[in-house]
Design brief:
The protein has helices at about 60-65, 90-95, 110-120, 130-135, 135-155, 170-185, 200-220, 230-235, 255, 260-265; strands spanning about 10, 15, 20-30, 35-45, 50, 75-80, 80-85, 95-100, 190-195, 220-225, 240-245, 245-250. With about 270 residues, it is α/β, with parallel strands linked by helices. The strands form three sheets. It has a six-stranded mixed sheet with strand order 8-9-10-5-11-12, sandwiched between helices. Strands 4-3-6-7 form a four-stranded antiparallel sheet, covered by helices on one side. The chain has a two-stranded antiparallel sheet with strand order 1-2. The longest helix has 21 residues, at about 135-155. The relative contact order is 0.17. The protein binds adenosine-5'-triphosphate (ATP) and magnesium ion. This is ABC transporter ATP-binding protein.
Length: about 270
């Protein structure tokens, strides 16, 4: 399926480009716990890349390394052809990487619109002194940011709740608002940590559709962690499988599904 460094065409005819994110020999420890042990994998432009594995395998830790929340003790992170120095999460966000969290991280007391607007923070250039000196520029920026937020709200079909405080929303909609906040940053790479966890079947179907639409309409590269194997196999182009901090599989859904080590560690056992 892979044809050299330029990319490949998926079964459904989507064009996947060059490598945008490369993790090289990443090791991450917490005291004596090795959360990630010498793992390498890449993510290509336009790809939907899944990370799967049992609880505690190190999946969230890997996403946290990509998003700059954790700095690995060993290994290199390459993004768009450049080795990334240790960076703070906001610096990583400025490079065009946005994320959602395994446990929803929203401002519960604020409206949906205001939460989505927080996703624009990395794009705000006019600081407070500038706002005082050039009121016009700050206002123009506010208007532009609001337009992007409203566009994303329309796209994710949450107009009807745009003024509602997040605390009043059911779980499935909160997850969608969190996706909206991440998308408001107009990321090149979107990281989703269990975007469908705890959802009912209908909510999962909606979320799957939105993930595919984001990838299709904005061309966003997506890396996602998910336990629902039906969803993973349907959505993703390639899958990394982790177990106890190690990589035990990497390939197309068909390839990992028939990988005996993956079956033994994860697919063959029940896990919720
Ligand atoms: N901040 C931390 N401090 C100490 N240990 C941690 C920390 N974060 C993760 N770990 C440990 O690292 C290992 C991997 O955890 P991680 O959360 O990455 O797993 P996961 O694959 O996302 O699991 P789950 O499917 O349950 O979300 C676990 O043993 C966990 O206890
Ligand atoms: Mg996790």
């Amino acid at each position: 399926m892979l044809d050299g460094s330029d990319g490949y065409v998926t079964e459904d005819g989507r064009k996947i480009g060059a490598v945008v994110m490369e993790m090289k020999n990443i090791t991450l420890r917490f005291g004596g716990v090795v959360a990630i042990e010498n793992i390498s994998f890449d993510i290509r432009e336009g790809e939907i890349r899944a990370i799967i594995g049992p609880n505690g395998a190190g999946k969230s830790s890997m996403l946290n390394v990509i998003s700059g929340f954790y700095i690995p003790q060993e290994g290199e992170v390459w993004f768009h052809g450049a080795k990334r120095p240790p960076m703070k999460p906001f610096e990583v966000a400025r490079q065009g990487i946005a994320r959602t969290f395994q446990n929803i991280a929203l401002f519960e007391g604020m409206s949906v619109l205001d939460n989505v607007m927080t996703g624009r923070l990395t794009h705000m250039t006019a600081g407070i002194p500038a706002q005082a000196l050039w009121k016009g520029r700050a206002e123009a920026e506010e208007v532009a940011n609001r337009e992007v937020a409203e566009k994303i709200i329309d796209f994710l079909e949450i107009q009807h709740i745009r003024k509602t405080p997040v605390a009043r929303l059911p779980y499935g909609l909160k997850k969608r608002v969190e996706l909206a906040r991440a998308l408001a940053a107009e990321p090149r790479l979107l990281l989703l940590d269990e975007p469908m966890a705890g959802m009912n079947v209908e909510e999962k179907e909606d979320m799957c559709r939105f993930i595919l639409d984001v990838n299709d309409e904005f061309g966003t590269t997506i890396a996602l962690i998910e336990h629902d194997m039906g969803v993973v196999m349907d959505l993703s182009d390639r899958v990394v499988v982790m177990d106890y901090g190690k990589k035990i599989g990497d390939g197309t859904p068909d390839e990992v599904r028939s990988n005996q080590e993956v079956i033994d560690a994860y697919l063959g056992v029940s896990h919720d």
